[in-house]
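Q: I have 210 residues here and want to know how they pack in 3D. Can you give me a structure?
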Amino acid sequence: MNKRLLSVSALVFFLFLAIWTAVAAGATNKIDHRLLQLFGTWDWLDGFTILGYGYFIGIASILLVLFLWFRKRDYYSMTLVLVAVGGGYGLNTFIKELVGRERPPFAQGVHGFSFPSGHAMVGSIYLLLIAYFLSKEVKKASQRWVIFFIFGLLALLTGLSRLSLQVHYPSDVLAGFSLGIAYLSACISVYQFFYSRMVSCEQRRSFKHH
């Protein structure tokens, strides 16, 4: 297992638990409402919310799976996409039902509970997952940093768009980011473990044949 990724996963998951505890205790109410008023004037963020819609995530995930199939025939990578994105969506739905936090009063016509933000959580998962696989296609570290910066920024803007639209509290979005990163880090760590074992087995087979 990748110890660094697991450490990141554990650390960010504890952040999520801290936010959950604070929300349950009502400790975030004042700052949530103040920040929500602030972001309500940031209309330029609204358009980024499309990146977190289910149909958009589904299309992007299918395209990523097809890329991995035609490019590498990598079943482990394809499984990672399905588990990370599909599992992330399921986990988000489960916790929303468990917490049962109502959405902000201005969230007209938006269904479902508020905590944690699905756009922030699942948006972070699939966008950072795309960055992860694209970064494997380049050789320079600077190029990898640029890829992660671009997709990380898109994930951030996707989550923040839920604040400008007034359909989530800031603590919902922060919790979504933290849980998404924690879950994705754990998924990638498990993937890397099994992938490295597969590569080792193939190398041993190749050595025996020679």
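Q: Anything worth noting?
A: Residues 170-209 form the longest helix (40 residues). The helical segments are 3-24, 29-39, 54-72, 75-99, 118-135, 141-164, 170-209.
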